[in-house]
Amino acid sequence: MMEKVILNRGREYATVHRHPWIFSGAIREVTGSPAAGESVAVCDAKGTCLGYGSWSPASQIRVRMLSFSPDAAPDAAFIRRRVAEAVTRRKDILAGGETNACRLVNAESDGLPGVVADVYGGTAVVQLATAGAEFWKQEIAAALMESVPGCTGVWNRSDVDSRVREGLSPQTGLLAGAEPPELIEIHEGAIRYLVDVRKGHKTGFYLDQREARALVGAYAKGAEVLNCFSYTGGFGLAAQAAGARAVTHVDASADALALARRNAALTPNPAGTAVDFLVADVFKQLRRYRDERRSFDLIVLDPPKFADTKAGLMRATRGYKDINLLAMKLLRPGGILATFSCSGAVTPELFAKVCAEAAFDARRDFQVVARTRQAADHPVALAFPEGLYLKGLVLRALD
């Protein structure tokens, strides 16, 4: 018989309204001793079953809901079906031919808390961040092999720091099918990228910025572009393909820039764009450019996450203000700044406020010409606003 989690009186509101997280302070009682990741029935204080979730004894988020129906207890068939449904929702992205890489499962927003799955060509890559995701990993892998067209293997990249909070150790390796090649070639339109799913950032690449890359490309023709935190090329390659006059990629990782160089050689260069690759700390390099009185037509700021939690929010906002202030001073009149934050604790409103304060200190006026978020294959469940982690602003300097 499935163990039960009984909520404190008055603490059922979020669950009734289909928010997937239940924190330790909301729980009055747990029957038995459920194992980590095991499914438990979630009941209100009167004992009425509200649904089922995965038990996470080491986390402050003790239960992550899988089902909000008392008649739909999770089992292997339930998990496989949910994975297949998530894949089906992306079928048009992959079938359209514009790309062969996308997000397949987006955790809570696809009803599978802690489960991220991406596909690169024929290889599916998963990150399993919670006890429940770990508990069901073999079913998840089997479902991906069955439901993803042309899938040859499932690679496990469960090396995220958040697993520590779940009492889990990092894990990587093959879960199903064939080993992935050393590098997988993917494409976004005519732009080609080589992806390292074993060691690359996230599951290998920043698929969530696909739509923003295309938007930045629309402003790049004839521009001198500075691509900061460039990783393996991303935004700079979009600018190159769109006919930029020059692109400088700046990143602290020599290995990432080596792959960016290879990607640039694969990508169309219709305008004969001059391309440079600079291994440097972006903060320090922006200050050097300021001191040298350098300027650019288009600057991209796509830094790594500055804050994992609200505890690091103040430090994060200082970092975002610093780099945006520096970049704003380097823009030519009429220039474009594309600036992003992937820190979930930084709301779109807070990010816009930080950028406005940076513009004030830079003594320059800017227009917001676009607001961006993670690509459409990274949806956000309406009842789970925490799923919106990536936000961006495209700003035009007026003077």
Quick recap:
With 399 residues, this protein is of the alpha/beta class. 28% of the residues lie in helices and 30% in strands.
Q: Which CATH class of the largest domain is shown?
A: Alpha Beta
Q: What share of the residues lie within helices?
A: 25-40%
Gyration radius over CA: 22 Å
The name of the CATH topology of the largest domain is Rossmann fold
Quick tags:
single chain; 399 residues; alpha/beta; Archaeosine Trna-guanine Transglycosylase, Chain: A, domain 4; Transcription Regulator spoIIAA; Rossmann fold; seven-stranded mixed sheet; six-stranded mixed sheet; globular
Topology (elements, then pairings):
Layout: E1 4-7, H1 13-16, E2 21-23, E3 27-30, E4 39-43, E5 49-55, E6 61-67, H2 76-89, H3 91-95, E7 101-106, E8 115-120, E9 123-128, H4 131-135, H5 137-147, E10 153-158, E11 171-177, E12 184-188, E13 191-195, H6 210-217, E14 224-228, H7 234-241, E15 246-251, H8 254-266, E16 274-279, H9 282-291, E17 296-301, H10 313-330, E18 331-341, H11 348-362, E19 366-373, E20 391-397
Parallel strand pairs: 1-4, 9-10, 14-15, 14-17, 15-16, 17-18
Antiparallel strand pairs: 1-3, 2-6, 4-5, 5-6, 7-8, 8-9, 10-11, 12-13, 18-20, 19-20
Helix pairs in contact: 2-5, 6-7, 9-10, 10-11
